[in-house]
Amino acid sequence: MADATTSSSKSRSPGSTNVDEKHRTWSVSPSTVVYHFGTSGISVAAATGITHPLDVLKVRLQMQLVGQRGPLLGMGQLFIQVVKNEGPGSLYLGVTPALTRSILYGGLRLGLYEPSKYVSEQVFGCTNIFVKIASGAFSGAVSTTLTNPIEVLKVRLQMNPKMNRGAFGEMRSIAAEEGVKALWKGVGPAMTRAAALTASQLATYDESKQLLIKWTPLEEGFYLHLISSTIAGILSTLVTAPVDMIKTRLMLQRESKIAGIYRSGFHCAYKVMATEGPKALYKGGFAIFARLGPQTTITFILCEKLRKMVGLDAI
């Protein structure tokens, strides 16, 4: 994580970090751990709650014309259709597991980035963009592996407006009817997506801040965080949209019998391109951007504010 003092940040070349200068005072205490993971989890949960309707629309868009080619509904048309047929409340289907996952997954995903980068700094003596990408990929993959059952539950609820079992009832039903392994459906693409998302988000945000501090008059504060998080949101959307669509399809295979059984993420990608066309990998792409862009911005701006409040360095 970059030092909060702008003068030292400006003197540091982008892509490198002085380990002795930066981490000599870095210590692990119970309060630091709580603040570190807590600020990350709260930030992601707040952003998720605000953008959840877009997540519901994204999942619905990704499940259009499974195994078929044809004209697709746009996000605006789908929004009107969902509200008209299912009511406004349907835009918050699955919000409970989404918020639960956000606190756990978000706390781990952002929270593990700093320790991962710290270890790399100790081993290699500096932090370049490749170390940042690797640190982000590691934290994203680990966090999504641990929280995949909640993600499966969330997308199932988002696709079933008439479900009355509730979150815990649906989780028991999945385990009983499809086996406990079903709770880890799509974990491979989910790990890939989380690794790509976290690496592109955090590494881009981290690197953008350093470059902006070095080459522009911007200093640590709202405008720096806003611009850096916007850049990170755009890049992460482009990188993760196809993997996100594949992950959704795998998690919802029970609802996708018309397309047959996807044996793996690669098999799913092949079948989607063969039956629906290459562009199908970006189904829901605009909804992903409309959600992930603001979510990234809200997450980082709020996280920076919370970290400042509890005495942690800026990201």
Averaged pLDDT: 81
Major β-sheet profile: none
Compressed to H and E, one letter per element, the order equals HHHHHHHHHHHH
Global geometry: globular
Tally of separate helices: 12
Query: Regarding quaternary structure, how should these chains be classified?
Result: single chain
For this structure, the CATH topology is: Mitochondrial carrier fold
Number of strands: 0
What Rg, in angstroms, do the CA atoms define?
A: 20 Å
Give unreliable regions as ranges. Answer: 1-25
Number of domains: 1
Question: What would CATH call the architecture?
Answer: Alpha/alpha barrel
Helical fraction equals over 70%
The CATH homologous superfamily is called Mitochondrial carrier domain
What is the distance, rounded to the nearest whole angstrom, between the alpha carbons of the first and last residues?
5 Å
Strand content: under 5%
Instruction: Tell me the name of the CATH class.
Output: Mainly Alpha
Q: Structural class of the secondary structure composition?
A: mainly alpha
Region (Disordered): 1-23
Transmembrane segments: 222-243
Subcellular location: Membrane
Biased composition (Low complexity): 1-17
Spell out the key features of this protein.
about 325 residues; mainly alpha; Mitochondrial carrier fold; about 70% helix; globular
Description of the molecule:
The protein has 315 residues and is mainly alpha-helical. It has one domain: Mitochondrial carrier fold. 71% of the residues lie in helices and 0% in strands. The chain contains twelve helices and no strands. Helix 7 (129-158) packs across helix 8. The chain is globular. It starts with 5 loop residues before the first helix and ends in a 6-residue tail after the last helix. Mean pLDDT is 81; it is low at 1-25. Residues 1-17 have a biased composition (Low complexity). Its main location: membrane. Solcar repeats lie at residues 31-119, 127-211, 220-309. Residues 1-23 are annotated as: Disordered.
